[in-house]
Structure formats: C-alpha cells, structure tokens
Amino acid sequence: MSERKRILTGIRPTGPLHLGHYAGALENWVRLQHEYECYFLIADYQVSDYADDIARVRDAVWEVALDWLAVGLNPESSSFVIESLVPEHAELTVWLSWFLPLGMLERNPTLKAEMEAIEHPEDARTKAKSVPVAFYNYPVMQVANILMPRAHLVPVGEDQLPHIELTRETARRFNREFKPIFPEPEGLVGRVPRLVGTDGNAKMSKSRGNTIDLKDSAETVAKKVKGMYGGPPRGMHDPGVVAENPIFLYLDAFDHDAAELADLKERYTRVGVSNKELKDRLTALLNDLLDPFRERRARYEGNMGLVREALEAGTTRGRAIARETMEMVRDALDLNYLGKY
Ligand code: ATP
Ligand code: MG
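# magnesium ion complex -> structure
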C-alpha cells in the first residue's frame, strides 16, 4: 500500500461544473493530487433525479469526468470513482446509519435547505412529492464516502464543512467503540470558500442559473460577464463602493495581479471606473484561465475512450480500497456469524 495520505472528495453529477466548483474545490484538488493518494467521487447515489431523468444523470457523469480532465486532474495518479459502481458505499451507509441520531441530521444545514426546497416546491409537478427517505440517508452516505478510503483530507467548498464534522464524530465513535480503523479527516476549504453567482446571489449554483461554466466558450463568458450584477446604479464616472459591487469579488478571486487590482479599487473609490472596464478585465482574466481547460477538454472530447478508461480504472481502484475497508469494518463489528461453528 502507498504511504501517501489519502484524499476523498467528490461532486454530484448534476451537470457541467462551474467557476464556484473550481475556486471552492477543484483548484485545491489539482494542487494536491501528486502529494496525496486521491479518490475523486462522482456521487450519483446522491442525485435525486432517478425517478425523473436517469439520462440526465448519465450525461452528467461524463460531463464531470470531462471537466475534471479539463482542469488537469491526472486519472492515472488519481482515481475517478463512480459511487454506485462501488456498492460498498451503500453497505457502509447502512452500518453507519446506526451511529447518527436523526435529530443531528435534521439540524444539518444542507439537508435543511433541501428539505425546505422539497416541502415548498415551486412547480405543480413536484407538489405531490413528500420527503424521500434518501434525504436522510445522504448525509450518512457522505460520511461513508469519506470513511471508505480512510481519508485524511477532504478538500471542499465551505458549505460542506458540517458533513466533515459529522464524519469526524462518527469516526471517533466507531474507533472508540469498535476498532481504531478510521483517521479523523480534516476539511480543507478552497481559496474562495463560496463564490457568489453572476446575479450577485450568495452562491454560484446550477439550480439558480447564475453560473459561468468551465466549458463555456469565450463568447459565452463575455456575454455572461456583461450581464453580471454590478452593484447599485451609478453614473459612468461616479466613484463607487468596492464592497457594493460583486464584480470585485470575482476580481479578488481570479485576478492574481495584486498591485493592479489595488490600484483599480483605489481609482474606483476616488474617481470612478466604469463597470464596462471592470467587466472587460474580468472577461479577459476568465478566458485566460479557461483557455487551457477548453483545449484539454476538446482533446478528450475527440477521444472519449480515454475518458471511459479513466472512469473504469479509477472505479476499479476505488472498489479495491473499499473492499479492504469493509473487511476491516466487518472484523471490527465482529460480523463473522458463520465462524461460530
Ligand atoms: P450546484 O449547486 O451548482 O449544483 P453543488 O453545491 O450542488 O453545486 P456539489 O456537487 O454538491 O455541488 O459540490 C461540489 C463541490 O463544489 C463541493 O465541495 C462544494 O462545496 C463546492 N462548491 C459548489 N458550489 C460552490 C461555490 N459557489 N463556491 C465554492 N464552492 C462551491
Ligand atoms: Mg451539484
């Protein structure tokens, strides 16, 4: 076995990845992939579309893999794992569900938000839906995901930290009551803990339609940036308040020329800088960032066999370590019933 420490993290296959995923998580994954043994999970058990649209989930699995390759994750040194093809995740979820009190799950902020969304559905079609049991399973499953490769580090966006805390508590309890097999994993939040949406909303999120996707063309990026919320109305040459204009949050996130950015903010405050100038600068920066991703993506799109190989090989490695962990878990829980006689 490798001596490197292990990373487990993942993304739900709900569609193409966006700048929020990149700044909050992927950027760290790319940086850490050679230092750690990495398991990147495509968490398809945790998508609620099965009843509605399995084809969409399937397409999204490939989209996620392409985006990962595009940003520079190396599928040979890291493992891209399709969650449901490692059914040990489901098995561990069942055992761990005895460790987590329902009240604790009900207080979980992510779960709470999703419950509310389903309890106050916006369209007539879903109005009849009640809360599926899976909503309670899925935080438990996230705990199982992290514990499965006995991960040490979990690089994620800020919204995921409560799940990591839940995982640490579960690991502590398991280790104390049975056998010490799980490291207590640390969370690692990216440079931009939560990227705002292009509409100025608190989180860039697909469901809010306020994303800039990693695979967007240069023209699309220009168009989306042009339409971005740029703070309260202001004459073209009026001074402005930096904190009121979310375009600066993007410049903070993606402009690496600190001196020029400081100068821009100073001019903005003193004599005013048009939103057009800010947006032109941002568009150029984003396209510089995304250009190499687009090139790599195009190469893989021309050879989807390579993407398939990445998914197959990674899932095989993910399954191997899962089997190893489940043997340890069964041993710790003393589940060898047939050994009695
Ligand atoms: P979306 O709302 O667009 O579907 P999501 O939050 O559901 O995105 P997940 O698959 O749950 O996406 O999360 C993948 C990772 O990306 C997580 O670590 C999450 O914290 C991070 N992430 C997602 N959106 C953002 C954002 N706007 N800013 C920072 N990190 C983010
Ligand atoms: Mg998502």
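# post-check
The pocket of adenosine-5'-triphosphate (ligand 1) is lined by residues 11-12, 14, 20-21, 23-25, 156-157, 159-160, 194-195, 203-207 (CB under 6 Å).
The first helix runs from residue 19 to 32.
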